[in-house]
Specification:
alpha/beta, five-stranded mixed sheet, 41% helix, globular
Length: 363
């Protein structure tokens, strides 16, 4: 099964790169209880001002953060600094992290909570298992006894474990090799047959295309029940008034506006990231696909945290030996804020988006 994808790695390269350099300052951020108390929140996000985080961009551009009495600043982030650590250490109030990173971080401290699940629409578009387009491997079952390359030792190993499980296999039925993110050298390793398949993310697959190696997705159907990730906060910050609820409500409004008004999302993103629109048709296709991953389970409850999805992710991490013991998900997952987060006027949100577009549209 080959899934349709835009085919330019240069389009995705800036999206998942950490765009802010680390400042190396212990006091440069405004995160922590003091910052939250005065309406200032520091957000650590892996792809600021990009298609990948269009909802954050819209919440800021359309004034939703401001309407909630908030000033949201971006935390300094570097490749080697885990976002969860920034939140845990008080350098950021909120962090957008992968599911595996969230669970791993929760194992190190009991002071983290996840009150907002980001990509509730599924993960098939963002994460996958691929082989060269001309490979004789047609399904996951064909990987038995083969060597599979991993982009990361945790999330992608867990995802591979889930894919193998769908085919009645275990991680022990294959050999795995950590080869790192998609690149020309990894593409050559895949093309040569030293690895038969590769588990990674959309940006990795784009890199293969750019290196001249078209790939085919063999991810089995039905893996949409795994969480991709969400926003984590410190437990004690949730008891400091409703500041975080207001942040997530503004984010939900930005998400809703982007899904319902793609032209508004495009205009806002063209302002903050014009370099990502050198090929408009592909950018629009990517934006549409990303928006689908943000559609709520029930069509209206943005950020809903489903314990069964996170429980399955944790079981896979344990099975793949990424983690050695389970997290108390009943404590880690904060699920009682959903109604407050979604208590916003849909019509007023779209009216605000339409008004903004009339002043800022691209024609």
């Amino acid at each position: 099964m080959k899934r349709s994808r835009p085919r330019r790695a240069r389009l995705l390269a800036p999206l998942l790169a950490l765009a802010l350099a680390a400042c190396g300052s212990s006091g440069g951020g405004t995160g922590g209880a003091d910052g939250a108390a005065d309406g200032t929140l520091t957000l650590a996000t892996p792809a600021p001002n990009s298609l990948f985080t269009f909802n954050e961009v819209l919440a800021r551009k359309l004034g939703f953060f401001e309407e909630e009495g908030l000033k949201v600043e971006l935390a300094p982030v570097a490749d080697n600094i885990p976002i969860a650590a920034l939140v845990q250490n008080g350098k950021a109030d909120i962090g957008l992290v992968a599911a595996t990173d969230a669970i791993s971080a929760a194992l190190r401290t009991d002071d983290l909570r996840l009150p907002y699940d980001e990509r509730t629409g599924g993960n098939g578009f963002l994460i996958g298992l691929v082989v060269p387009e001309k490979s004789g491997i047609r399904s996951v079952a064909d990987l038995k006894g083969k060597n599979v390359g991993l982009a990361s030792p945790d999330q992608d190993r867990a995802y591979l474990t889930a894919a193998l499980k769908k085919a009645g296999m275990t991680i022990g039925d294959v050999t795995t090799t950590m080869v790192g993110p998609g690149s020309p050298s990894v593409a050559q390793t895949l093309q040569s047959g030293r690895i038969a398949a590769y588990a990674g993310t959309l940006t990795d697959f784009f890199a293969f295309d750019e290196a001249g190696l078209p790939v085919r997705d063999i991810t089995p159907q039905g893996l949409g029940g795994l969480p991709v990730g969400g926003y984590i906060v410190r437990a004690r910050s949730l008891s400091d008034g409703d500041t975080l609820v207001r942040f997530f409500r503004a984010l939900a409004r930005g998400t809703y506006a982007g899904i319902e008004r793609p032209k508004v999302a495009e205009a806002a993103l063209r302002q903050v990231a014009p370099e990502q629109w050198s090929e408009p048709e592909q950018s629009r296709a990517l934006l549409e696909a990303l928006a689908k991953t943000l559609v709520p389970f029930d069509g209206k409850s943005f950020g809903e945290v489903k314990a069964d999805r996170w429980g399955e992710a944790q079981r896979l991490l344990l099975e793949a030996k990424v983690i050695e013991r389970p997290v108390d998900l009943n404590a880690f997952l904060k699920r009682d804020l959903l109604q407050q987060i979604n208590s916003f006027d849909r019509e007023a949100t779209l009216a605000k988006a339409d008004q903004w577009l009339s002043r800022n549209g691209t024609g």
